[in-house]
C-alpha cells in the first residue's frame, strides 16, 4: 500500500493521481476500484494530508498524451510477448500490486487509445478513461518513446480488442452521459468536459454521426461554439481511426 508521503511525492512531481482501493480474491487476483470520480474529483496536497488512508494504492491517471501502458496479466504472457516483440524491454517495467503481472510504460507519442484484451492477457491503457496502479518507487522520468514495432502491433490488433470505458461505471450508468441531459458544467470546465464526453462515446462504439448528434444535444444546455465542437470531434475521430 502507498503511504501519504509517497502520494505527496507523486503529486509534487506533477502527476495526476487518485486513491485506489484494492481487494484480492481467493486466487490472489486483484480488483481495483477508484475511491473518487477521478475525471472530475482532483486531489491536492491538502486532500492527501487530510484523507489518504494507509489502505490506498496510487492510481496514475492517464491523459491520452503522456504514457501508454502495456498491462500484462502475468509473467507468462509477458515472456511470450517478449519473444516476438523484444523491444518491450526498452520500457519502464514494474510488477503489478498483486505481484502476478507487469506494467510496461512508454511515452504515448502516437496517440494510442485504450485496447482492452488486445490479445489474451494483455490490456493497453493510454486514454483519459484509464488509470494504472503504480508502484510508488517506479521512476517515470526517462521513459522511452513507443517503439515502431509496438505501434505496429497496436495498429494490427486493436480491432480485436474490447473497447470499454474504465472510468467508474455503476448500475446508475456512466457519469459523463449525464452531460447529455445537464450540459457540460460550469464555465472553465466546459471544453474539457465536452472533450471527455466525445472520447467516452468513441470508446463505447458510437460512430461519428451518432456522437456528433449526442454532443450537439448536450451542448444545447451549454452553448459552446459549433466550430469548437466540430474541431474536437474531428480531431478525436481522426486519432481513433488513424486518419480515416
Give a brief description:
This protein is an alpha+beta fold and 244 residues long. Helices cover 33% and strands 20% of the residues. The chain is built from 8 helices and 9 strands.
Q: Report the average pLDDT across residues.
A: 85
- The number of distinct helices, counting runs of at least 4 residues, comes to 8
Taking the sheet with the most strands, its summary is:
5 strands, antiparallel
| Helix-residue proportion | 25-40%
Query: Number of DSSP strands?
Result: 9
Helix and strand sequence: HEEHEEHEEEEEHHHHH
What is the CA–CA distance across the termini? 44 Å
The portion of residues forming beta strands comes to 15-25%
Strand arrangement within the widest β-sheet reads: 5-6-4-8-7
Radius of gyration: 18 Å
**Quaternary status of these chains?**
single chain
What can you see in these coordinates?
The protein has 244 residues and is α+β, with helices and mostly antiparallel strands. The protein folds into two domains: 4-160; 175-240, no CATH class. The protein is built from eight helices and nine strands. The protein has a five-stranded antiparallel beta sheet. Strands 2-1-3-9 form a four-stranded antiparallel beta sheet. A hairpin with a 5-residue loop joins strand 1 (17-24) and strand 2.
List the SSEs and their pairings:
Layout: H1 4-12, E1 17-24, E2 30-34, H2 45-51, E3 56-61, E4 67-72, H3 75-84, E5 92-95, E6 102-107, E7 115-119, E8 122-125, E9 131-134, H4 148-157, H5 179-182, H6 190-203, H7 208-219, H8 226-240
Antiparallel strand pairs: 1-2, 1-3, 3-9, 4-6, 4-8, 5-6, 7-8
Helix pairs in contact: 6-7, 6-8, 7-8
Amino acid at each position: 500500500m502507498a503511504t501519504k508521503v509517497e502520494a505527496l511525492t507523486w503529486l509534487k512531481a506533477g502527476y495526476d493521481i487518485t486513491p485506489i482501493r484494492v481487494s484480492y480474491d481467493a486466487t490472489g487476483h486483484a480488483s481495483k476500484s477508484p475511491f473518487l470520480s477521478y475525471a472530475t474529483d482532483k486531489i491536492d496536497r491538502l486532500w492527501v494530508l487530510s484523507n489518504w488512508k494507509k489502505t490506498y494504492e496510487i492510481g496514475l491517471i492517464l491523459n491520452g498524451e503522456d504514457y501508454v501502458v502495456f498491462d500484462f496479466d502475468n509473467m507468462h504472457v509477458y515472456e511470450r510477448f517478449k519473444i516476438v516483440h523484444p523491444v518491450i524491454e526498452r520500457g519502464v517495467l514494474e510488477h503489478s500490486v498483486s505481484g502476478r503481472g507487469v506494467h510496461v510504460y512508454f511515452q504515448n507519442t502516437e496517440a494510442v487509445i485504450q485496447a482492452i484484451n488486445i490479445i489474451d492477457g494483455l490490456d493497453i491503457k493510454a486514454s483519459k478513461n484509464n488509470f494504472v496502479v503504480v508502484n510508488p518507487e517506479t521512476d517515470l522520468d526517462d521513459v522511452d518513446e513507443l517503439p515502431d514495432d509496438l505501434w505496429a502491433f497496436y495498429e494490427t490488433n486493436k480491432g480485436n480488442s474490447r473497447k470499454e470505458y474504465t472510468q467508474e461505471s455503476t448500475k446508475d450508468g456512466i457519469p459523463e452521459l449525464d452531460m447529455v441531459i445537464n450540459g457540460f458544467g460550469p464555465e472553465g470546465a466546459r471544453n474539457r468536459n465536452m472533450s471527455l464526453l466525445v472520447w467516452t462515446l468513441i470508446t463505447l462504439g458510437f460512430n461519428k454521426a451518432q456522437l456528433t448528434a449526442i454532443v450537439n444535444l448536450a451542448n444545447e444546455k451549454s452553448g459552446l461554439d459549433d466550430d469548437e465542437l466540430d474541431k474536437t470531434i474531428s480531431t478525436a475521430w481522426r486519432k481513433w481511426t488513424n486518419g480515416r
